[in-house]
UniProtKB/TrEMBL annotation:
<dbReference type="InterPro" id="IPR002931">
    <property type="entry name" value="Transglutaminase-like"/>
</dbReference>
<dbReference type="Pfam" id="PF11992">
    <property type="entry name" value="TgpA_N"/>
</dbReference>
<keyword id="KW-0812">Transmembrane</keyword>
<dbReference type="InterPro" id="IPR038765">
    <property type="entry name" value="Papain-like_cys_pep_sf"/>
</dbReference>
<feature type="transmembrane region" description="Helical">
    <location>
        <begin position="133"/>
        <end position="151"/>
    </location>
</feature>
<dbReference type="Pfam" id="PF01841">
    <property type="entry name" value="Transglut_core"/>
</dbReference>
<protein>
    <submittedName>
        <fullName>Transglutaminase-like superfamily protein</fullName>
    </submittedName>
</protein>
<feature type="region of interest" description="Disordered">
    <location>
        <begin position="520"/>
        <end position="553"/>
    </location>
</feature>
<feature type="domain" description="Transglutaminase-like">
    <location>
        <begin position="429"/>
        <end position="498"/>
    </location>
</feature>
<keyword id="KW-1133">Transmembrane helix</keyword>
<feature type="transmembrane region" description="Helical">
    <location>
        <begin position="58"/>
        <end position="79"/>
    </location>
</feature>
<feature type="transmembrane region" description="Helical">
    <location>
        <begin position="107"/>
        <end position="126"/>
    </location>
</feature>
<feature type="transmembrane region" description="Helical">
    <location>
        <begin position="554"/>
        <end position="578"/>
    </location>
</feature>
<feature type="transmembrane region" description="Helical">
    <location>
        <begin position="157"/>
        <end position="174"/>
    </location>
</feature>
<dbReference type="InterPro" id="IPR052901">
    <property type="entry name" value="Bact_TGase-like"/>
</dbReference>
<dbReference type="InterPro" id="IPR021878">
    <property type="entry name" value="TgpA_N"/>
</dbReference>
<keyword id="KW-0472">Membrane</keyword>
Amino acid sequence: MSVLWRRLAGPAIVAGVAGVAGWGFHRVFPGTELLVAVVPAAVAPAVVAALTWRRPLWLALALDLVLWFAGAVLLYRGFEPALFADVANAWQALLTTLLPARPEPELLILVHTLVWAAATIGAETLARTRTRIAATVPALLVFGVALLLGVDGAGSNLPVVGALFVLLAALALLRDDRPPLWLLAGLPAAAALAALALVAGPLLPIAAQPYNPRDDADLPPPVRVDSVSPLDRVSAWLQIPDRELFAVKAGKPLNWRLAVLDRYDGVRWTSGARFQPTGGRVPEGEWTGAGEVVRQWVTFDGLPGTWLPAAERPQEVTGVRGLAVDPDSGALLAADKPAKGFRYEVASRVAKPTKQDLLDADPVRDPALTAFPEGPQLQLFRRLAQQATKGADAPIKQAYRLQNYLRTNASYDVTAPPGHSLKGLEFFLRTTHRGTSEQFAATFALMARTLGLPSRVVVGFRPGEASGGVYHVKSGHVMAWAEIKFDGLGWRPFYPTPGRSGAKDDHEVVSSAIEESEKLEGEFAQGGSDRPKDSQPQPSGKGPEEPAGGPSPWLLAAVAGGVALVAYAGVVVALPWWRRRRRRSAQGAGQRVLGAWHQTCDDLGLKGENALTAADVVSRHPGDISAHLQPLAEISNFVRYAPETVTEAAATTAWQYNDAIRRAVRARTPFTTRLRNRLLLR
């Protein structure tokens, strides 16, 4: 009886370790869908090992492979020819996905495969060897992968670490041939130690700023979303103003932004957005101060394209399958064109900067957002912009003056010729002085760029016709406006388009913004151009900084080793190897040379000291290191100034110097120092 319960308990614990490690992906895939990928993958290999431990290993592995395939078919709800391609590509797709990821089979298959492999190796190791806890190592490596891929996710994996610690203790006691009573005594002690780890874990140095592999992932390139730009539709929509597009249920009227266009080639404004898949979360914008969260329920009617309207900057979106978001602008995109009646929910954060925030605003420095196409129109736009903002030496004042200039020197006319090419906008400024919001917004954005103000054009809609808390948006409510990016504030809207009856606007959201700008403009005029320096700091949405606290040092010393070993073993082993391998196998000889230099700086403990020149790095190190460092620095400097002439031989030589420096550094660095650096991922 004793032998039987041990033979059954061992595979059960290994299955539990693999399943718990797989649950570490809950920060990537929150929700019960993850269980469909984890539970069969953890349990089936343990059952196979328990039944075939006296049979040949190849038979057990064949059964595991068949059952893995059956589990994958269950995950896909049918056979999918792209199954094996998904296994190979899922990790890369997850690195370019904004968490939480959609629990789609093509992504979950990675978790399913990793857990299955860990459970298979662990169960067979347990059944066919006399090792104690070696069977749990594959699962711990899987948990390390989960930690890396879930860095941006919500929630915490510390409870998972605690569960893994308890299961490892149980397996160690079991493999020591201890009586069952030892388990009853040992498991509470292990649980108590795991509880201490939960308290001390967040205080470990690596927990403060963990490595995020998404920082090194290549984002997808900008793509053209629709064949027709939303800005090109403005004039056409205004000609048929009563066409129903969508309805929004919300607690207050707001502008519903549709598309953000930040690139201009002299003919048209386009989007440079790099859309990434997401399960619904939208990364926060630059503004972290006071704000108001507004929830909206949007129902499609006849809106074309795949852009999804939302107020201000969205925070969270639910109800959209195949949702993608541009982290920079917050623009939303559906994978397929939504059908009539399609409904989704959005929570948006409406920024509420104070007057002082606006007065202290400075534009960000971004050449891409101030670029003006080559052409004779540049002088015209710059001259008019300087004339409109004469005497305004504050950036926010320049923007308000430019907005007022266009609102009072041209008129709104829905019959004006469409288009926003440089020649068309020149005709608008010199001759017609009439246009739709397409011409006003595009002109404002380009004039702002001549003043060094980073700008873009936004296409969206007025609130629409209100009826019982629902705003019905028609094609005639389309509107384009401009935005300027300020440091700390993020993007601020400006409305250069006048109302139909003159300079006043018949749209309450725009009217309130214009009144605010006129009020601030008046305060600028009264107070001069000097900005107040002695004002009280404004609330940032965060409470006062609390003094650091936590357990005493002896408690940290007691638990840090165990927690780091369990939680970060996979990361500590895999990350330096992966980073070095990626640099050594980079495409192009020049990139491999620079990779050798960056790797050498890391090996020398200079990671993050980007201001040091190659000569500075060489001068700081002794002769046995500088003898190899000097020629490597010369090769890397040569690459920076003449990359097209770098040869493969130079790349090979650079890495030979790196290997020599690495050996010299290891010889000079005490083992304890190297161990500490490895554990802290320095």
